[in-house]
Structures are given as C-alpha cells and as structure tokens.
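Lab channel / #folding
Pinned by the channel admin:
"Please post every new chain as: sequence first, then the structure tokens as a reply. Keep commentary short and put observations after the output so the thread stays searchable."

First post following the new format, from NK:
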Amino acid sequence: MIDTERPATADNTAYLTPLRSAQIPLRGTSDTLNRRKNKRCIILIERTMEIEAISRGEINSIKILWENLNDHHLSKSMYFKDHFSKFTFEKRMEALVKRDRFIAYVAQDSCDSVGYCIATVDGSIGEIDSLFVKGAYRGQGVGEKLVTLALKWLEEQDCETIRVSIAEGNEQVLDFYRKFGFAERLIVMQKTHNIAVAGNGGKACCP
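Reply from TO:
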C-alpha cells in the first residue's frame, strides 16, 4: 500500500488510455457445518475478479479506498501524522491528474471495489503513485495484478525511468516492490518540527 505526494511538474490535461480489463481467479473459502460430526468444514471455492481502467471522470469511485489508505499511513507514520491528518483525496487527485499521462486500475469483486492502482507519466518519468487493496483481499494476488497492469502501461509509454515512493512508516512494502525489479536508489529525509535532537547522542526522538 502506497501513496506519497510529490509536487506536480507539469500542468497538462491528463488523459486515460481506452478501457481495458483483466480477470483474476481468486481462491476463497466458504464454511459449512457438518451436523453429524459437529465439525466445521472449509470448502475451497473459485471466483473471478475483474480489473478495469477507469476514466478520470470516474476517479471518485476510489475515494473511500484512498481514504482507507491514508488512514493506514496516518496510523503507521511516526513523524508525519500531521501531514496525513490534513491530506485529502481531492488535493491528491488534483495533483495527479495534472501529470502528462494518467491511468487508474480498479479491482472489483461483483460490484464492490476492493483495490486500485494509479500510475502517471511526467515527461520521461513514470511512477506508481498509489496502491491499495482491502485487507480481506490481500495475499490473493490482487496487488500483484494491479501493479503488473500499471507497469505494462508505463512500459508502453516509453518511460526512461519508472519509480515508486514509499511513505515513512510503510517500509514493510519494500520487499513487495523488489519482486518487480525496484531497488532503493535514494533515501530522502525531510526536516519536521516533530523531531527533536538534543542531548541524546544525535538520535532523533519524537515528543
């Protein structure tokens, strides 16, 4: 799960490629009760999930999912809770749709949106900007499929560089992105008034 903000470097009108969709076979469970033995049986079932690209006009359909992601960042962050507490979906989307090119993939189980991935291109730089999957659907390949589709689209844009930014406190997702060939190139530190360094051997602390 990611969503990190960076200043927009272009003021062009964003656009989406034509609607595309994909299907993911998912394995779930259904509980039934064996009355004779009074034991619960777990029955494996197969279901199919749809992933499709949505238009800019439909971007509000992921607002609740994005807000869940922002709440996740707020709970995980040690130093930037103030940023996430004031961050809004409207502010984030306003910045993203100004990029040169923009696409959003949404995973749906029946009519329920359960995950999304946003990717953009600015000049020759492509980026995975925001990714989130509902807790009940994690570990089933949904996030992997979303990122795979986004990377395929970015590669079709002839990007010289494709990057992803990880928010402070969300470092557990590093291994997920390493599977796609990402590696740490820079570690960016930002000064914040919430960090005090005084009389503790140079170690940062958060009051």
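NK: The helical segments are 63-76, 81-86, 89-96, 142-156, 174-178.
TO: also worth noting, Residues 7-20, 27-45, 197-207 have pLDDT under 50 and may be disordered.
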